[in-house]
């Protein structure tokens, strides 16, 4: 079994037109950070033309406008590159079910294959390792850990913040003597939902 420092991870995040792929919402931005031996080694980033309007609520959160995504490539052109980027890595996200649901939907719409996978959810890690927080949003968890970075609700900045949270949570787990990879990660796996 590989030790934690031998594992390869990809932290990823998406921004979307709204909250539900089942209601027709789509990905408008995707970002990922490849981690090898707990060090960032490579980035992936793209805006995506969602082929639909961005809701006012989504724009208010992430600031991504229709004009910004109009010239961007469509998901069917971006996602094969993303799949290649994440190949052989364990995925990490904050509230990762949300991101996996959108990713699964986009892959289905594009007719692209998707192997059943599991991902480490930093929100589940935080709930276990930091009990009693009033909120487990990325901003709240990072604040509780003393990370001095403001959440911007843009894919790459949220990926970088999620990676920082993941590292801090691993350090927290190590202090609690949860030292095995299975102990640290297995309890926090979640399957894609679509």
Question: What is the fold's blueprint, element by element?
Answer:
Elements: E1 8-16, E2 27-36, E3 39-47, H1 56-62, H2 66-69, H3 75-86, E4 90-93, H4 96-110, E5 118-121, H5 122-129, H6 138-144, H7 155-175, H8 181-185, E6 189-191
Parallel strand pairs: 1-4, 4-5
Antiparallel strand pairs: 1-2, 2-3, 5-6
Helix pairs in contact: 5-7
The CATH H-level superfamily is Ribonuclease H-like superfamily/Ribonuclease H
Poorly predicted spans? none
What's the CATH architecture name?
Answer: 2-Layer Sandwich
Distance between the first and last residues' Cα: 30 Å
Total helical segments: 8
The mean pLDDT is 90
User: What is the CATH topology classification name?
Assistant: Nucleotidyltransferase, domain 5
Q: Describe the biggest sheet?
A: 6 strands, mixed
User: How many domain modules?
Assistant: 1
CA-based gyration radius: 16 Å
Query: What is the β-strand count?
Result: 6
Task: Please trace the helix and strand order, writing H or E for each element.
Answer: EEEHHHEHEHHHHE
Strand content: 15-25%
Can you walk me through this structure?
The chain has 194 residues and is an alpha/beta fold. The chain has 8 helices and 6 strands, in the order βββαααβαβααααβ. It has helices at 56-62, 66-69, 75-86, 96-110, 122-129, 138-144, 155-175, 181-185; strands at residues 8-16, 27-36, 39-47, 90-93, 118-121, 189-191. It has a 6-stranded mixed β-sheet with strand order 3-2-1-4-5-6, with helices on both faces. Helix 4 links the parallel strand 4 and strand 5 (118-121). The longest helix has 21 residues, at 155-175. It starts with 7 loop residues before the first strand and ends with a strand.
């Amino acid at each position: 079994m590989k030790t934690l420092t031998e594992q390869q991870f990809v932290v990823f995040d998406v921004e979307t037109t709204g909250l539900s792929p089942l209601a027709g919402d789509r990905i408008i931005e995707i970002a990922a950070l490849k981690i090898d031996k707990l060090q960032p080694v490579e980035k992936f980033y793209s805006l995506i033309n969602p082929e639909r309007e961005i809701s006012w609520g989504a724009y208010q959160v992430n600031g991504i406008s229709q004009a910004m995504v109009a010239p961007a490539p469509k998901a069917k052109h971006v996602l094969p590159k993303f799949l290649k980027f994440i190949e052989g890595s364990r995925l990490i996200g904050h509230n990762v079910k949300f991101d996996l649901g959108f990713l699964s939907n986009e892959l289905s719409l594009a007719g692209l294959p998707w192997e059943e996978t599991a991902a480490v959810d930093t929100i589940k890690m935080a709930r276990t390792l930091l009990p009693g927080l009033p909120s487990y949003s990325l901003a709240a968890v990072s604040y509780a850990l003393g990370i001095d970075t403001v959440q911007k609700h843009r894919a790459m900045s949220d990926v970088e913040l999620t990676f920082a949270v993941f590292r801090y949570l691993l350090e927290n787990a190590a202090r609690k003597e949860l030292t095995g990879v299975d102990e640290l990660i297995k309890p926090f796996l979640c399957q894609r939902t679509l």
